[in-house]
Specification:
The chain is mainly α. Helices cover 65% and strands 0% of the residues.
């Protein structure tokens, strides 16, 4: 499986200690089972941007992978457009 992973995900995993690597591989395996390999790898790449060196957890990685699999954009934050309308601003 390592040979099919994106280089940046491999780099992220290689920087982890044994405990974090075990946690990460478990999370990735669950995400792959649930959403598929490609969405799981995309989710890893997105999560790496926000998690830094922290290992991914299955409860955060899998939902992102499922949204990617289903063609939904990963959330980038709350939609505050209703407040713009309230304040009289155009969205």
């Amino acid at each position: 499986m390592r040979g099919q992973m994106p280089a940046d995900v491999i780099e992220w995993l290689d920087a982890m200690d044994e405990t974090d690597l075990k946690t990460s591989l478990g999370a990735i395996a669950e995400s792959c089972r649930t959403a598929g390999f490609a969405p799981a790898m995309d989710a890893c790449r997105r999560l790496r941007q926000t998690a830094g060196t922290r290992p991914p957890r299955a409860d955060e990685l899998t939902p992102v992978a499922m949204r990617i699999r289903d063609g939904e954009a990963a959330p980038s934050g709350p939609d505050l457009s209703a407040y713009d309308l309230f304040l009289g601003k155009e969205a």
